[in-house]
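[job 0417] fold request received: MFS family permease
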Amino acid sequence: MTLRPADRTLLALAAVAIAIAAADTYVVVLALPDMSAAAGLDALELQRSAPIISGFLLGYVAMLPLIGRVADLEGRVPVLLLALAVFAAGSAVTMLAYDLPGMVVGRFLQGVGGGGLVPATMALVADLYPKERRGLPLGLVSAVQEFGSVLGPVAGALVLAVATWRGIFALNLAAAAVLLVAVGRAARRSDVVDAAATARRAAGRDVVSWLLLLVLSVAGALNALRPPGIVRDLFWGQFFVSYVGTHRWLTPVGLVAVLALVALVVWSLATAHPLLDLRRWWRAFSAADLPGALLLAAALGGIVLAFGTGDPAIQVFSPAGPWYLLGSAVAAVLFVVHLRRAADPVVPRGALAHRNAWGGLLVSFFVGSALIAAVVSIPIFAALTVHRDSQVAASLVLVRLLVALPVGAVLGGWLLRRLPAGVIAGGGMLLAAAGFVWMASWDAESLEHVVSTVPLLVTGLGFGLALAPVNAAVLAATDDDVHGLASAMTVVARMVGMLVGISALTALGLRAFYAAQRDIPAPAEVCGDEGSRCSAYIRLQLDAALTQEQFIFAGAAVCALVAAVLALVLLRGSDTREVGNRGLLIG
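[job 0417] inference complete; emitting structure tokens
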């Protein structure tokens, strides 16, 4: 089977979109202090701005199963276009936000759109390639996604060097808009375009919707940014005076934006071929079992809020974590009951029953549990030792690991033509485990030596090797009509593994830290009259802090080892190799 150039272009554009969304996951970390200040939060209240990050995670994880199922019912390209549109809308809302709720809503929409790109693209690969040839394209998609993670902090730093934090989201908006047009054009030349293409072309000529969007955009931007020159003008300034109190949306400009939004919704529901086909998407989400999807979203959302809103350096999870987990458990029970009763549930009965399918999800969970330890603890370790005065420099140490991830992803996809998925994924995670064992032996001077780069590269390569085989095994073990859902659940499993993993590993590290602190003598015993400021006592405190990170690395090694064993056991027999190579090894 030979792909047409238009099909390749479509996949390439979808991969680029995934990279941009992946970059957006990390880019906000550098901009968080400035965003907090813009939202009116004090520099000492950065913890209150955590919802800016967790809002993205909530949208990314909680809505993925529903979007994946819609991709199975409505087609891959429509969901790609919808996800790009939602990501663009989220970027616009975040860019124009002037308070914390607005930023959180924008980030949530970005998460929904960015997350929706992944299952649609993975399912598109499965549609275009037979199972024995999916390895390399899946590896390339994973590589581009991980490259986006590397690019995120660098791109954020470059934008912040020449513009404000709003420039980051303006760049996102521009990129999403360009990709939206490019994907639509590539789809019209591709084999995967569906029967609704004519209706979508007609929708593009919906002049009323375009005009209402223009009014909404201009009025919304003026209301959010409030240009000083206009606000202070004697005539134009009165359009920014609120009718009631000081609420911005109750000013003449704000009300124009609100009315334009309401008119756009009404028009979209009334006209035959609207630009925003709300009726079609309501039918699609309803057909995908919206009640069941919302119960599953609530269960996943409780996990995200419990584990994703605390400070991983000092907390196991959010102070309200037990309540979030209780709500998650209740939603999970109701979801299971719903699955038994629904005629067409969001997760069709038996869809993930094959050992390679549910086994792939389990492996993905432990891959995420181990990976998050590297993402969080390597910068912390660097900040404690060689980069005490620069958080940016400490974060860049992680890049040494992240640059090896895309290389491993491509290599893992290529090897799938010759080796079983379980062997490649298991071997990759054994490499990652070995790298973590090495890191667990680091001391305060280790990062000063060039050799410290070796375990970082080995660990990154190992993680990369595991990505494509796990995805390929899950897709090979599921039917074509649930590939979107299966891809979504694989991503969800890894994200939930990351959230739960950092909580469990932090708990392990904190216990080691407190134990090490209890063994430190009193300052007077170590320093005499110098008190706690002498170098010997400071070194003991540093060693206690490093003990915490060393235990986290050791715990990550255990998670990686568990992932390796599960991959070798549960993914054996996965039908992902070319016919001529299946006799080389027993899968």
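[job 0417] notes: The mean pLDDT is 84. DSSP finds 23 helices and no strands in the chain.
[job 0417] exit 0
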